[in-house]
Amino acid sequence: MAKLEVHQFPARSDNYGVLVHDPETGATASIDAPDADAVIEALYQKGWTLTHILITHHHGDHTAGNKRLKALTGCIIVGPKVEARSIPAIDVEVSEGDGVAIGNSNALVIETPGHTRGHISYLFPEDGIVFVGDTLFSVGCGKLLEGDARMMWHSLQKLMALPPETQLYCGHEYTRANAKFALTVEPGNAALQARAVEAEELAKKRQPALPTTIGRELATNPFLRPSSPEIQKRLGMEGRELWEVFGETRRRKDKF
Q: Which of 94, 171, 178, 190 has CA 20 to 30 A from 101's CA?
């Protein structure tokens, strides 16, 4: 079976769009639709025809292109059942454990609420790829706009349990800023130090530090590391519940 082809491209100010393409059938999905023009340009560059849009959550910078892309291509729009009323032109509503076929490849829906109350992620287990929207970022995580710390920590644990080599694509590129914050809570993390330098070098070349992997995030992302003794000590939260440590880390990031 041919592997999915993945094409990542910038959209809006700091969004990143992604196309996934099954070369055997020609099926092509856009992960979210931040901007119709950007998606259309990416499709043109690759010579692919859009068949699906896989929506992670209802925010406008992830759904703005839905109606226009559907009118142009007749694509099927898939999104979280919990947020269906807020997602323009949705066709298929999905929940935890549902499958979505993109040609011969199958995505598994993982509910990852916290940033929004119905946020979902799409895991392609046979391809070793997960699309997490705004739940998890490179060295960061989404703001708790509709959920709380306990909810988001539960969602992050689901992603943390994936194989470490899993390629992770997220909705925004915030690596440099996230790394600067991360070093304030875990400055002794050598892997994080190296990653911060790498992010700066990539930024100079105007290249994204995406995709990342689950393994890299486990090693460097403070939001996945509330068990770190250094983080707990710097936050004054030694021995506290992990979701509480996570919540305090998120609170400090909000004020950073």
A: 171
